[in-house]
Specification:
Pfam families: DUF2933. The protein has about 80 residues and is an all-alpha fold. The chain is built from one helix and no strands. It has a domain of about 45 residues. The protein starts with 15 loop residues before the first helix and ends in a 17-residue tail after the last helix.
Length: about 80
């Protein structure tokens, strides 16, 4: 039988393996951001231009079609 001495179990990230894994994630994230920043920022203007037609179609609320009256059966 295991004895509980009033200590809560440690979180996984407080263990040696968890700390090593978190360190690896930080290092990998740093290199991922620094190496791919040029690709992501270089494509940003083209992404914004590609979104313009979608924003035009869906951003205007249907070009004035949002003010329709409810169907005759739904009026009081």
């Amino acid at each position: 039988m295991a004895h509980d001495h009033g200590q809560a179990p440690r979180s996984w990230y407080r263990t040696r393996t968890g700390l090593a894994f978190l360190g690896l994630l930080v290092i990998a994230g740093f290199f991922l951001l620094t190496e791919h920043r040029a690709h992501a920022l270089g494509a940003l203007p083209f992404i914004l231009l590609a979104l313009c037609p979608l924003l035009h179609l869906f951003g205007h609320g249907g070009h004035g079609h949002g003010g329709h009256e409810p169907p005759k059966g739904d009026r009081p």
